[in-house]
Write a structure and sequence with these properties.
Length: 353
């Protein structure tokens, strides 16, 4: 454990000066590590810190713990309190530490020569016994660690604004995958931009559909079986009739970002955007050619491929497809079993194993 002096020096370099709340952040962290029996600073993800304010206190916490937002080991829940909860993600143990209500007045006892309250806190907080400076609470998180840390590799796309969502932060609303903003948890409101879109940091002027395109849009609306294409066609018909994005969104019962996304596509692609048929589920993992070849191999005896056994097992067929036929880079045995069962290959020769 590094001494407090070195931690405060590092915090001051980052913060450009040293202040009392940095001292509190550093000492809160050291006390938490002592109680959780963890070494600091951390270079792994075992310690999770949830700070209840931003600013100076957090700089002290970062300098002491090594936890930071970029490493996904520090979270801010801005309650406006100089307090933090420290979680050992291995044991699940969590403690919350905050300054005692008498900490400011007691600081003078440890810095009697201070010139003012600020200096008394700066110096006193470094010297005060932890029992006088803080109070500690054993806590249970209302949100599970799995939900807090989420899945860094998971990605989704909002079905309303079409922006990418990472870390498993999507929500389900009415059976659709949406981001939290479109799901009603937004901290901002999109300003009315009339015909203008801001995209790629540039301002874009969206032209109106011409007469021929308006006829095409009506035809698409009458004939298309794809709900998304019909919605795009309706939006552009309203736009061609002179309605603004917000009014179109209200008329169609969708988020205004959906309309902006539609206009964005029309500006860049014109009517060719309707040639982009919405994907129906995940793309197949195997091509038709690969599936035909798997069937061909499975229907023949292993001896036809120079192998010293008369019947296939899933393991042997898997080995042959990947390492001898070089047909696939990888395929699980369960996936292979389901594939064989689904296609019901004729005359397939399998052992019971």
């Amino acid at each position: 454990m590094r001494p407090l002096e070195l931690i405060l020096q590092e915090s001051a370099e980052s913060h450009k000066h040293l202040c009392p709340r940095q001292v509190l952040g550093a000492r809160i962290s050291l006390l938490a590590a002592e109680m959780l029996k963890l070494e600091l600073p951390r270079s792994d993800k075992r310690l999770l810190v949830i700070a209840e304010t931003d600013g100076c206190t957090v700089d002290g916490i970062i300098a002491a713990t090594g936890c930071h937002i970029g490493g996904r080991t520090l979270r801010i829940r801005d309650f406006g309190k100089v307090a933090a909860t420290f979680v050992d993600t291995h044991s699940g143990m969590a403690i919350r530490i905050a300054p005692s209500t008498q900490s400011r007045s007691l600081a003078w006892n440890h810095a009697p020569d201070a010139r003012n309250d600020w200096e008394a806190m700066l110096l006193g907080y470094q010297l005060m016994p932890a029992d006088d400076l803080f109070y500690v609470q054993d806590v249970h998180l209302n949100i599970s660690l799995v939900e807090i840390t989420s899945k860094p590799s998971k990605k989704a796309q909002c079905e309303i604004c079409h922006e990418e969502i990472i870390n498993g932060r999507e929500v389900i609303r009415g059976g659709s995958i949406v981001c939290r903003s479109c799901g009603g948890e937004s901290y901002y409101e999109v300003l009315q931009m009339s015909e203008r879109l801001l995209t790629d940091n540039r301002q874009l002027k969206v032209r109106l559909p011409n007469a021929a395109e308006m006829r095409q849009l009506r035809q698409i609306l009458e004939e298309s079986t794809y709900a998304r294409l019909c919605r795009w066609a309706e939006a552009l018909l309203f736009y061609g009739a002179g309605l603004e994005a917000q009014s179109i969104a209200e008329a169609l019962g969708v988020h205004v970002n959906t309309i902006y996304a539609c206009l964005h596509r029309f500006a860049h692609m014109g009517m060719s955007l309707f040639q982009c048929v919405p994907p129906q589920g995940a793309p197949p993992r195997l091509t038709t050619t690969q599936m035909d070849e798997i069937a061909r191999v499975a229907e023949q005896s292993p001896t036809e491929f120079g192998l010293p056994y008369g019947r296939w097992s899933l393991a042997k067929l898997q080995e042959c497809l990947i390492h001898q036929r070089h047909l696939l880079k990888a395929i699980g045995r369960e996936h292979l079993r389901r594939l064989l069962k689904k296609n019901i290959f004729a005359c397939v020769m399998f052992s019971a194993s």
